[in-house]
């Protein structure tokens, strides 16, 4: 039984790696489940046994890239830890994801697919958006603890993360610029966190 499971896992991994290569090389619209199956050296039926369709497969790849790049344990709010240190961990984790070459390549594919066929990719983009919820949850917890001003957590999280994406996502995805150098990454993270706390942190609460 264990051997069968390992074989199944290996086939699934092969499908994912093949899909990444196909999407990066050919884009979302041109890539087919047939091409993915051929590159993975499995049957088309095997691909469909693991993934219902191309949209679900692409969404899974994006979410795996997030998981491998982000330290999920850092998303838990700590009432006994300075806000600034916690936010720095959160945003450094986010920055690592935004600096991942695979993620940036596939983000270009996702954006192009959304522009070309928005009705087909709405669910895919929504699933990726679910991975942003950790920052919302952290902000809501800090608000409940009285350390951040009341505001819509999703709005505040979007503001914070947009400060990073302005430098470390959109120029790379839309203009083909290289990922930021390490020193500049840290500068962007530090300034984003400080700007966020300058507005949202409750006066008198230590960082």
Automatic annotation (TrEMBL):
Residues 9-69 form the HTH tetR-type domain. This is TetR/AcrR family transcriptional regulator. InterPro entries: DNA-bd_HTH_TetR-type_CS (IPR023772), Homeodomain-like_sf (IPR009057), HTH-type_TetR-like_transc_reg (IPR050109), HTH_TetR (IPR001647), Tet_transcr_reg_TetR-rel_C_sf (IPR036271), TetR_C_Proteobacteria (IPR039536). Pfam families: TetR_C_7, TetR_N. The keyword Transcription applies. Residues 32-51 bind DNA. Keywords: DNA-binding, Repressor, Transcription, Transcription regulation.
């Amino acid at each position: 039984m264990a051997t069968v499971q390992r074989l199944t896992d290996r086939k699934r991994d092969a499908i994912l790696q093949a899909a990444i290569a196909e999407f990066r090389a050919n884009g979302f619209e041109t890539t087919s489940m047939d091409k993915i199956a051929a590159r993975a050296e499995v049957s088309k039926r095997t691909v469909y046994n693991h993934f219902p369709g191309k949209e679900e497969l692409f969404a899974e790849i994006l979410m795996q890239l997030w998981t491998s790049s982000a330290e999920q344990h850092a998303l838990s709010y700590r009432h006994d830890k300075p806000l600034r240190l916690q936010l720095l961990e959160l945003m450094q984790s986010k920055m690592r994801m935004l600096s991942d070459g695979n993620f940036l390549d596939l983000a270009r594919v996702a954006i192009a697919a959304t522009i070309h066929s928005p009705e087909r990719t709405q669910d895919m983009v929504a699933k990726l958006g679910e991975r942003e919820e950790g920052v919302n949850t952290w902000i809501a917890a800090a608000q409940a603890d009285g350390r951040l001003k009341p505001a819509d957590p999703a709005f505040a999280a979007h503001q914070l993360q947009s400060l990073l994406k302005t430098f470390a996502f959109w120029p790379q995805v839309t203009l083909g610029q290289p990922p930021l150098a390490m020193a500049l990454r840290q500068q962007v993270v530090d300034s984003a966190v400080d700007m966020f706390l300058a507005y949202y942190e409750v006066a008198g609460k230590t960082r």
